[in-house]
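Quick log. Single chain, no ligands specified.
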Amino acid sequence: MTHAEHAAAEPHGTARVRCESVSRVYSRTSGGGWFSRQTETPVVTALDDVSLTVRDGELVCLTGPSGSGKSTLLHLLAGLDTPTSGTVSLAGTDLSSLSDRERTRLRLDRVGIVFQRFHLLSALSARSNVALPLLERGVKRSARRARATDLLERVGLGDRITHKPGELSGGEQQRVAIARALANDPAILIADEPTGELDTDTGRRILDTLSELATERAVVIASHDAQTQAIADRIVKLRDGRLVSDG
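-> predicted structure:
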């Protein structure tokens, strides 16, 4: 059964992440640096009055041209940034109501992020890279190793756990990144162009993995790739910072 067929058979669950009338405005300091204080003269509106809800068991693809606001929206959903106006809630918690430390902790506990360029530590093995989020949470070494090994086996890399990133292909590195994003069993998985640097066949395998994961959690993928859009339950289109379609 494909993910779309599974979704049709089983209605999506609880609203996991919700944006309500979210805008994000960036400003420029007199020294030329970019930052976001509302007291400065706004020069870029990255998002303009965007509302979006993603539920458990749902895979949503964000699409739109470069500069449409996809990455900004992902950063807000992940708690890496806060909106200029409006609210972003994760599992019912308004992220703007949290301190930086509280938001970091919530992100560590509830959000998994898969970056386009992997962001693996070259000096560490695949297993050690996957275990890093668990180390930050103070999980014991034996439990970290067991969890990381299990996740690498789940993404088809059980025979590569001791290999360092430089010894892995691009697709294998991306699967390590997915396993790392799952280390803390997050409620929402966010991926930014996860197949952008991969060949077609490898990209298809990565998407199959993400599709399987979406049966257990909310998944949001930013991509202009047709293969990604084909596996999505919903395609959300952005243009010039505004949501222009959702369906």
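The radius of gyration is 18 Å.
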